[in-house]
Amino acid sequence: MIGYGAFCDYFFTQKRYLDLSEKKQWVLAQDGGDFDYAVLGSSRAYGAFDMNLLDSLTGMNGINLASNGSGFKDNLLVLNLFLQDNTIDKLFLQVDLGSLNSRESFSNEFHAFTFLPYWEDSIVQEVLRKDIPAFDNRLTSLIPQWRYFYFNKYFSPKEVLRRAELSDSQTDLYTEVKGGMRSTYIKNEKRNSEFQLYPQPDKVDSLDLNYLSEILSMAKSRNIQTTLFVAPRYQSDHNYLQSVMRQFSVTTVFPLGFDESDQTLFQDQGHLSDFGRFVFTQKFSEKLSNYRKKNSS
């Protein structure tokens, strides 16, 4: 057990054996990047921007670190590990009531197995011990390698062989789009069938607030300027979220001026269509430009 666990510690942290078809793995495979900004959040941040368009509009060089189903716990560890091998000047961090009540909003808000090989990192270890009580015991202190057997599905010899074969043949799905999604300037006037609408949470989870605060603290300690942003949500208002965000002394960009009643701008209630992404990328760039002018005057 100890021998195989020690092998996993090595193998699954080697960038050449990461599965580039999985977004978080692609992010962790980045090495030596020097970016003006990074986007971080859940699928709503992943699909919020056409990154190449945002680069051209702002004159900056960015990367999208967001991935599906990621709450602030995931975001904290992704950012922590990414910054060990890459640098950014600005962080655009997505916030919404789903992320602030992730245990009720997401089917799985924390993908602990992704971070298991990085146990020796103090921040990763602290979060895993808090999230998985089985890891916060004497056995884990004495034989930390046993944790791979807790998530054996993801670290089996079969998975080792699959990853080894992938390293020679896999296709990189994200680099060309800088970790984001493409957009189109052509509006599709044909509406989809009516979206199924879900109410937003009417409360926030103190645990999510704490992890959001930790992300902000991490960025501040590394002299990274953070801007919070709210991705559009079909037929939603943001009054309660605005009241929640007043406790943070960080600029928060709400989708004001974006028509959240126009169904053609959305793929579903919470995610933008290709045309919606084009429009929101432009709106966000304009907001950033206005904030820069305001702060320089």
Task: Give an account of the 3D structure.
The chain has 297 residues and is α/β, with parallel strands linked by helices. It has one domain (2-296): SGNH hydrolase (Rossmann fold, 3-Layer(aba) Sandwich). Helix content is 42%, strand content 10%. It contains 14 helices and seven strands. The protein has helices spanning 2-11, 23-28, 43-46, 51-58, 72-82, 102-105, 112-115, 122-131, 138-142, 147-150, 157-169, 206-221, 239-245, 274-296; strands at 34-40, 62-64, 87-94, 225-229, 252-253, 266-268, 271-272. The strands form two sheets. The chain has a five-stranded parallel β-sheet. Strands 6-7 form a two-stranded antiparallel sheet. A hairpin with a 2-residue loop joins strand 6 (266-268) and strand 7 (271-272). Helix 4 runs parallel beside helix 14. The protein is globular and about 55 Å long. The mean pLDDT is 92.
Helix and strand layout, with pairings?
Elements: H1 2-11, H2 23-28, E1 34-40, H3 43-46, H4 51-58, E2 62-64, H5 72-82, E3 87-94, H6 102-105, H7 112-115, H8 122-131, H9 138-142, H10 147-150, H11 157-169, H12 206-221, E4 225-229, H13 239-245, E5 252-253, E6 266-268, E7 271-272, H14 274-296
Helix pairs in contact: 4-14, 5-12
CATH architecture: 3-Layer(aba) Sandwich
List the strand order in the largest sheet. 2-1-3-4-5
What is the overall shape? globular
Name of the CATH class: Alpha Beta
Helix content bin? 40-55%
**Radius of gyration, CA atoms, in whole angstroms:** 20 Å
Count of DSSP strands: 7
In terms of DSSP E residues, the strand content is 5-15%
Average per-residue pLDDT, rounded, comes to 92
Q: Count every helix, treating DSSP H or I runs of 4 or more residues as helices.
A: 14
User: Strand-and-helix sequence, N→C?
Assistant: HHEHHEHEHHHHHHHEHEEEH
> Which runs of at least 5 residues are low in confidence (pLDDT < 50)?
none
The CATH topology corresponds to Rossmann fold
User: What is the terminal-to-terminal distance?
Assistant: 62 Å
